C-alpha cells in the first residue's frame, strides 16, 4: 500500500495538479474573467500592507526562481561552473535569506487577514486558506535547510532535480528518485503540487498576470484640463 501511495503522490499527482492548474486557469479566465484578480484589501486598511506585500513578493519570487533554476537545470550543465555540494550550499544560503524575508512578509499579511476586523469581514475562507498553505510550505522549506546540512554532498539535491526533470519531460520512474529521502522533502514537494492544484480557484490565479510589460511601457503623460473644460464656460 505504501508503494502505491508513493507512486500516486510523486508520479501521478503532479500531473493531476498541473492539469488542474492549466485547465482550471483557462476555464476561469474564459468563464469568470472578472474574478481574475488579487482581491487586494489595501483600500480597507493600509496598515502593514506595504511592508507585508513587498517583503512577501520579493521573497517568494526569489525562492520560486531558485527552485526553477535549481530543479530544472540538468546536473551535467551546472557542473560546468559549480559542483553539487557548492550548489547545495548556495541554495541553502540564498533560499534561507529570501525564505526569511518571505516569512516576515507573509506573517504580516496573515496577521492582517486574521486580526484586522475590516479585512477579516470582507475576506473569504479561500483567502485565509491560501495564506496558511503558503505558510506551511514556507516553513517546510526553511526546516529542510538544517536537514540538508546533515548531508552536504549534494546527493539529495541531485535526486530531487532528477525527479522534477522526469516529471516535466513525462518520463516514468520519477517517484523512485524521492524514495527514501527525508519526509520534509516529500512533504514540501507534495504541498507544492497542492498549491498548483488550488491556484485556479483562489487569488493565486493572478500569478499568470505578472505585469512584465510595465518594464518597457512608456510613461503616461497627464495634462491639466483647460479651465473652460474643468468648470464650464462662464456666463
UniProtKB/TrEMBL annotation:
Cellular localisation: Cell membrane
Quaternary structure and partners: Dimer of heterotrimers each composed of an alpha, a beta and a gamma chain. Alpha and beta are catalytic chains; gamma chains are involved in binding the enzyme complex to the cytoplasmic membrane.
Pfam families: Nitrate_red_gam
EC number: 1.7.5.1
One GO biological process term: nitrate assimilation
Reactions accelerated catalytically: nitrate + a quinol = a quinone + nitrite + H2O
NarG-like domain mapped to chain residues: 7-225
Positions bound to heme b: 57, 67, 188, 206
Organism: Cognatiluteimonas weifangensis
Gene: narI
GO cellular component, one term: nitrate reductase complex
Protein name: nitrate reductase (quinone)
Keywords on record: Cell membrane, Electron transport, Heme, Iron, Membrane, Metal-binding, Nitrate assimilation, Oxidoreductase, Transmembrane, Transmembrane helix, Transport
Recorded topology in the membrane: Multi-pass membrane protein
Residue ranges crossing the lipid bilayer per the database entry: 12-30, 51-69, 89-109, 129-149, 189-216
Amino acid at each position: 500500500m505504501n508503494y502505491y501511495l508513493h507512486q500516486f503522490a510523486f508520479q501521478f499527482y503532479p500531473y493531476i495538479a498541473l492539469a488542474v492548474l492549466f485547465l482550471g486557469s483557462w476555464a476561469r479566465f474564459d468563464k469568470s474573467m472578472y474574478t481574475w484578480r488579487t482581491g487586494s484589501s489595501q483600500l480597507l486598511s493600509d496598515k502593514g500592507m506595504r511592508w507585508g506585500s513587498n517583503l512577501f513578493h520579493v521573497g517568494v519570487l526569489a525562492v520560486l526562481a531558485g527552485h526553477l533554476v535549481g530543479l530544472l537545470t540538468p546536473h551535467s550543465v551546472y557542473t560546468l561552473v559549480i559542483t553539487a555540494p557548492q550548489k547545495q550550499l548556495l541554495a541553502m544560503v540564498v533560499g534561507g535569506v529570501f525564505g526569511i524575508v518571505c516569512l516576515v512578509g507573509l506573517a504580516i499579511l496573515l496577521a492582517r487577514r486574521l486580526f484586522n476586523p475590516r479585512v477579516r469581514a470582507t475576506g473569504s475562507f479561500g483567502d485565509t486558506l491560501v495564506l496558511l498553505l503558503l505558510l506551511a510550505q514556507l516553513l517546510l522549506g526553511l526546516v529542510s535547510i538544517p536537514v540538508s546540512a546533515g548531508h552536504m554532498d549534494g546527493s539529495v539535491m541531485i535526486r530531487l532535480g532528477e525527479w522534477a526533470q522526469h516529471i516535466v519531460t513525462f518520463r516514468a520512474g520519477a517517484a523512485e528518485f524521492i524514495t527514501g529521502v527525508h519526509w520534509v522533502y516529500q512533504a514540501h514537494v507534495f504541498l507544492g503540487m497542492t498549491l498548483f492544484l488550488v491556484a485556479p480557484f483562489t487569488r493565486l490565479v493572478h500569478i499568470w498576470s505578472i505585469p512584465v510589460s510595465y518594464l518597457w511601457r512608456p510613461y503616461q503623460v497627464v495634462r491639466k484640463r483647460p479651465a473652460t473644460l474643468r468648470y464650464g464656460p462662464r456666463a
